[in-house]
Amino acid sequence: MPPVRSASVGERWLELLDPTKDEIVDALPTTVADDVVDELAAKSGERSRPRIEGHGGYVFAVLVAMAPVPEENRIVSQEVGLVATADRLVVVRKTPPEGEPWHHRCLETATNAGVGQLVFRVIDDIAQSYLEVVDSLDAEIDELEDNIDRWPSVRIRRRVADLRHDLIHARRTVGATRGAVRRIRDKTLDLDDDTLFPDEVERSFADTYETLFRAGEELDVARDLLVSSRDYHQSRIAESQNEVAKKLTVIASLVLVPSLIVGFYGQNFVSEFDKGYWTIGVSAGLILVSTAIQLAIFRWRRWI
Predict the structure, then answer these.
(1) What is the CATH superfamily name and number for domain 6-238?
(2) Backbone torsion region of residue 187, taken as left when φ is above 0, otherwise alpha when ψ lies between -120 and 50, otherwise beta
(3) Position 3 confidence tier, pLDDT thresholds 50, 70, 90
């Protein structure tokens, strides 16, 4: 089945969903480099690296929004490509392999906004999605902590591994996006003029940078909570193994003395064990008394 494609048009922006290379070429200025077109036309990659690049007369950006799916305990990465010139913004949305594409509602509500303001709206909306990811991961870690004493070890290990994978991916995405936004805030993009990002837009990007910084810090806190849960689970496993080893040691100790008694009585001496005090009753009594003494000692030492 061919991919479903759609387009939305605003006063200063054009949005394309899963476009072909020809559609992208028709939507972009002729000054856009071929490698930019190829990257916009490529399929969504699970590990796309967010970045913002200045190309003299236009800005090219690859961004990754993140949408948590709580009922399936996973996070969907939604790749978004941008090409912004002084008079128009082209947004290329890509549908992830298992999930919905990023929604451009932040552009639909923009009226009489410049291109730089539109770029800010897109990046700020993507930054806000990282806070939703933080809330989702915190809720999943809380669920893990609440059930760590009830769930089987295999399920806990698998859940910890999945959460660690999501945290690493989220922290890398947030960090790369924060570094890209800093280039706009610090005016280090390679642009011919400053009309695309005027001073008021750059000040707005400072707020987005703070949002990304807070998301990164909260992801670090979530990582520490996950490590604590993993360590607690491992200590529970070690404690359980110690209990099993203790019980096996007690059982072996209880069997040791009776085995010595039985071995002693099993010696093959003619007529020596025919006397009355070597009867089976005496040996059984010795076994019972020695076992009772051992149990009393183990109980006194609180080994059992």
Answers:
(1) Magnesium transport protein CorA, transmembrane region (1.20.58.340)
(2) left
(3) very low
